[in-house]
Amino acid sequence: MSDLVFYTHPQSRGRIVRWMLEECEAPYQTEIVQYGLQMKTPPYTDINPMGKVPAIVHQGRVVTECAAIIAYLADVFAAAALAPPAAQRQDYYRWLFFAAGPFEQATTNNALGFVVSEEKQRMVGYGNLDLVVNTLARAVSAHPYIAGDHFSAADVYVGSQIGYGLQFGTLPDRAEFRDYFARLENRPARLRATQMDDALINKPV
């Protein structure tokens, strides 16, 4: 067994982690967890009690939550140079966790038809959808990549969220987002990851 096991489903946020693993060129073993009973019962819930994918087990230790997995892999597989030097990680951490927090909360709530009233917007971290969208649009157009002039693990997460949003209409179709995603979508690691997960979707269970 590999010392890095990746638990996923090809129609899940696990696609984000697959892309990151391919960027790292890390050896890993894939375990597909099916929606329904398998995902919600032991032994998988011994790994993630939430009954959600993705998760990784690396050298016997569990990491869940996409952004946490992305940041962890960037640190562990440092040779891939997917994180800026420690003293230069301000934008890296800022936008990685902005996308994992305010952005995903805002777009998910909007997709579910939940709109926070104006008087209660200060109670939620994202305020309102327009504020989040405009903030992210400025961020992705400030530099070639989200943390500056070089691709990083933060682009895997932010780019995945933007790519999904453009594909499924959960994000406004704006030039800033299209231009940013165009710089990411044909990366060899992303293409490999996409091909792997698409093949699993079409594979009989």
Automatic annotation (TrEMBL):
<protein>
    <submittedName>
        <fullName>Glutathione S-transferase domain protein</fullName>
    </submittedName>
</protein>
<feature type="domain" description="GST N-terminal">
    <location>
        <begin position="1"/>
        <end position="81"/>
    </location>
</feature>
<keyword id="KW-0808">Transferase</keyword>
<dbReference type="Pfam" id="PF13409">
    <property type="entry name" value="GST_N_2"/>
</dbReference>
<dbReference type="InterPro" id="IPR004045">
    <property type="entry name" value="Glutathione_S-Trfase_N"/>
</dbReference>
<dbReference type="InterPro" id="IPR040079">
    <property type="entry name" value="Glutathione_S-Trfase"/>
</dbReference>
<dbReference type="GO" id="GO:0016740">
    <property type="term" value="F:transferase activity"/>
</dbReference>
<dbReference type="InterPro" id="IPR036282">
    <property type="entry name" value="Glutathione-S-Trfase_C_sf"/>
</dbReference>
<dbReference type="InterPro" id="IPR036249">
    <property type="entry name" value="Thioredoxin-like_sf"/>
</dbReference>
